[in-house]
Amino acid sequence: MEIPSISDQTRQQHAASFGAAADAYRRGRPPYPRAAVEWLVPETARDVVDLGAGTGKFTEQLVAAGFEVVAVEPSAGMREQLAAAVPGVAVHGGTAEHIPLPDASADAAVMAQAWHWVKPETAIPEIARVLRPGGTLGLVWNIRDLTEPWVAELDDVMHEHTREEMDTAPELGGPFEQLERTEIRWRHTLTRAELLDMVASRSYVIVLPASERDELLGNVAELLNSHPDLADHEELTLPYVTRCTRAVRR
Ligand SMILES: C[S@@+](CC[C@H](N)C(=O)[O-])C[C@H]1O[C@@H](n2cnc3c(N)ncnc32)[C@H](O)[C@@H]1O
Q1: Which interval of the chain is the signal sequence (predicted)?
Q2: Which end of the chain is least crowded, N or C, by CB within 10 Å?
């Protein structure tokens, strides 16, 4: 059966859905490899804006790396989790298209797992406005590595209802130049409960009718219990490819 890709209207509904599962998001989503932070943000940067910061998964890694971080996030539910998880960081309501910060106030901007929700034609000039000349924009996605058989099976179960199209190697253009990309392979160890939270925090799962969401989560639990590669494993090791894009503001 062909699974339909999502329309623009559905995309907006998905983009706005995260707050409803902010706690599952915080518990279940993976961190990012430290090498990604180092590649995406120059060590000479001081002021860094984390756009679409969510519950602060990337924000906390920026703070740990020693940057002065401002987080911008449209969902109040996600901001609440962020404020609790990364105390002391400045958190603002806003989007990549409307950033509540002055012109030329940041050395770097990043978007982790969020660029696919923005309108690039509005976000690109807005991010350029906030960056100082020579400032950088870094985009990053953690993608599950489907070359491992059980992960491919998990992917089939997760996408029984919808398949989300994501361009993880976007062009930027306009005020941005020197576009570069890299990929980092790594493995994330998590419990079964955390894996179920990872699934429950996907936008296309959040927006499902409750009965279909319960069925999907039940199918994931069944896979975890029955797959020969996973049986008797208390902890799971999920392989990821982290895709990174960076560019410099003219
Ligand atoms: C998959 S989450 C990523 C959160 C966080 N960056 C992380 O890595 O865990 C996507 C986030 O983008 C936010 N978002 C949706 N549309 C956005 C927009 N136009 N500008 C900025 N953020 C947006 C959502 O509210 C959500 O918190």
Answers
A1: none
A2: N
Q: Is 61 in the pocket of ligand 1 (CB under 6 A)?
A: no
- Taking a C-beta distance cutoff of 8 angstroms, is the pair 110, 13 a contact? no
Cβ(195) – ligand 1 distance below 6 Å: no
Per-residue pLDDT tens for 168-215? Answer: 999 999 999 999 999 999 999 999 999 999 999 999 999 999 999 999
Residue to probe by mutation, ligand 1, list 18, 61, 144, most atoms within 8 Å of CB: 18
